[in-house]
Amino acid sequence: MAEQKQFHSPLLQHAHSSSSSSDEESHTTHRTGTIWTAIAHIITGVMGAGVLSLGWSLAQLGWMFGPPAIVIFALVTAVSTSILSDCYRSPHSEHGPDTNASFFQAVSYYLGEKSQRICAVLLNESLYGNTVAYTIATATSMRAILKSNCYHDKGHDADCKYPDSLYMMLFGLVQIFMSQIPNFHDMAWLSIVAAIMSFAYSTIGLGLGLANVIVNGEIKGSIGGAPAASAADKVWLVFQGLGDIAFAYPYSIILLEIQDTLKPPSVTKTMKEASRSAIVITTVFYLLCGCFGYAAFGNNTPGNLLTGFGFYEPYWLVDLANACVILHLVGGYQVFSQPIFTSIETWFSDRYPDSHFVNGSYSLKVPLLITFQLNLFRLCYRTLYVVSTTGIAMLFPYFNQVLGVLGALNFWPLVVYFPVEMYFVQKKIAPWTKRWVALRTFSFGCFLVSAVGFIGSLEGLVTAKLS
Fold first, then answer.
1. Which range of residues forms the domain containing residue 375?
2. How many structural domains compose the chain?
3. Would you say residue 202 lies in a domain?
4. What is the pLDDT of residues 352-363, one digit of tens each?
5. Which of the residues 22, 321, 403, 430 could staple to 204 if both were Cys, CB 3.0 to 4.6 A apart?
């Protein structure tokens, strides 16, 4: 039997947690995160669908430009996350130290209302787009397990076809349930499981690629990458490859939410250490997976190493890797969804503080399990959100093209521009100083890369939709 509790809302508590020093003290008592949980959150958010497309990206860029591109994107992410971590605390002369618990909140504080509105569109589009991409990737892995077993039983030339839409809907049903996790503070266990899964399937993909290189007796690929029908087509593919790598790295949009889970006192220092460690770990895995994938298949490297069926045997190992992908993306979906959930629900809580539907919660006892709090607005809103991401994924089920568009579109503004501009304000860096010129040059260079990546990926998405 549901027991109603009047206005027990964690959303209201979160929304006002930094409004005064006493509120901040209350909020910090709920922070239990450590460097290990932060690394788990980061790896869950970063080492997702993108790692599976890196072999294909290297095939477009070749040995000369592919591995250096991965390293460069890692360095850009390291610089971005370091300066963004410094923006977590925003000293107030009257009220003592305050904190920015989200990327959006930090932009609002440092850069004002106009930038806030632009950021809101880009930020929510990026987070939403990641959940769409994860829906596509999960359905692809579900289908790959069935195809792997089919090829094993009937031969590699068998007509093993399965619809994407069914598996996208199944994933959506799981996410409707998982989306009832209230916030980041309650999902550390999910991120830890997801991070373990990401290491598992990345290691399997790496091992399969290495095994193929040994069996082939040679390292395939070339300096300039896979040939194309024309020079223009080659340019588009190179740009799309850059977009895919751009998608694989950044997590700036969820960094401050992760930082807000860490227990005091050295929150910023801990976050920077966690970021450095996570970036090094993911870069090593990215280089190994991407390079061995390209070395194994050369110009014929599939868009997704585990679902493109460059690997057929051992089929059970391919199945295990894809099962790990599925489990990881269940958690990854939540990592990118939670900031949207929190911002929307906080807004409604502030707008309608007396609403039972928005702020009331009910204690539900699940037989043989735990008692959890059910909020009706959360249930309705988050269910509609999952339904919408599933619908978009079914409309555009193109893995590499979607990753490229999302990565390139959001890379410069969210990973570079806004963090750099906030850093200028936070550190009071004067124009035309050495640091100002260096960061401006850094930002402009990243803008050019982001622009060409977006153009190439968009062309690929349009071509795939029309074909």
1. 3-70+109-234+264-398
2. 1
3. yes
4. 888 888 888 777
5. 321
